[in-house]
Amino acid sequence: MKGHPEGIKIHRFYLSYKLNGEVNTGWFEGVHIRFAKDQLLFKFPDATDIMDWTYEKSEDLKDYLKKQNAKKLTLKLRLKDQVV
Q1: Which of 14, 32, 55, 60 has the smallest number of Cβ neighbours within 10 A?
Q2: How many CA atoms, within 13 angstroms, populate the side-chain half-sphere of residue 40?
Q3: Tell me, what's the pLDDT at 80?
């Protein structure tokens, strides 16, 4: 949490989001979570599935990322089977 010259507290939020089917993570700042999500969407307007991981266990994030990658791989395999 950073201080602001006008006394406003700026928080950092660790967010995950999907962009073009890929799951990404990053730190975004804001006075509250909604502002941080707005900052993310300003930077990546096509982002979807935004989730806050700031106060979650890192193991939960790792499990989420594994599941998302497994879903993506399954979808690719299905598409490949349909083409053949």
Answers
A1: 55
A2: 27
A3: 55
